[in-house]
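README: folding subset

This subset contains proteins for which both the sequence and a predicted structure token string are available. Records are stored as plain text. Below is the entry for Bifunctional protein FolD (300 residues), shown exactly as it appears on disk.
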Amino acid sequence: MSISSSSSAAAPTPAPSARLLPGAPVADQILADVETRVAALRERGITPSLATILVGDDDASAGYIRIKQRQAASLGFASPHRHLPATATQEDLHAAIDEFNEDRDVHALLIQYPIPQHLDYDAALMRVDPDKDVDGMHPLNLGRLAAGIPGPLPCTPAGIEALLAYHEISVSGHEVVILGRGATLGRPLAMLLAQKRPTANAAVTVVHTGVPDWPRYTRRADILIAAAGVPGIIQPEHVKPGAVVVGGGVRYEGRRLLPDVDESCATVAGAITPRVGGVGPTTVAMLFRNAIEAAERRFT
Ligand SMILES: NC(=O)c1ccc[n+]([C@@H]2O[C@H](COP(=O)([O-])OP(=O)(O)OC[C@H]3O[C@@H](n4cnc5c(N)ncnc54)[C@H](OP(=O)(O)O)[C@@H]3O)[C@@H](O)[C@H]2O)c1
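--- output ---
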């Protein structure tokens, strides 16, 4: 198959050919399982509870919290919420976290990111009870992941593993190249996909700005995962013909979503996540899976 460049004005763009890998059916399957498990706890008189904290008045963040609360309610979770003003201090934030940490009726806790710039998100994350950490990003949980000890998994990486498994993409024994070694996506994903498990078990390579000739690696990947947050960084010439391409990295310009993977990669890839509705829905579903697992852990 010939490799075309999307920047060529003269050449006609070939029709997309890759199979799409939507996240919605994966998320639906995960959420159906969560709903069943919530109902099972409720039958025992236990209401699983996912608490949320929002700091400041950012419209987008408030919107995301509302969506998560609505979804929590529809799945059967209680969802107590604290909204702190944009002027809140680190101590105010820690006090809100402590309150939910100590509340035995709260099983999982989410701090909506980002928080105002004068606040230290990492310090807040460290304050969260690791067993209530729905994002799976507390250092103790990243340590559990590294050590292979069960615990809440980082949502986006876990969602990508689930997405590949759902769409029957064979990961085990294959070459996975991840562009980006960030703490939320590339780094934990590399640990996850290298684990000894049928849906992982991959030969994982991570590339970044320290590897200027990174296309040399991405071009040999059976599965290429973009986790850089640089719009359009992955072009068709970076993709092995027939490879699976997963777009994890995105940047927002206002409300406009700018993905790492240029849409023209669909002309070279064998399978690809859609521009919108790929990794996002599976990330949210994993958050609820972490929440129900946190509740179950308390009562087993
Ligand atoms: N879809 C979702 O639900 C979801 C959830 C979470 C995160 N994300 C997205 O995932 C992306 C990654 O987030 P993160 O926090 O893990 O990472 P991050 O801290 O933003 O780091 C980005 C990584 O990409 C690498 N990179 C950036 N520009 C590059 C370039 N020109 N060439 C090669 N490598 C480059 C960086 O290399 P260096 O380390 O060398 O600087 C770094 O390792 C972001 O776009 C984020 O929005 C999406």
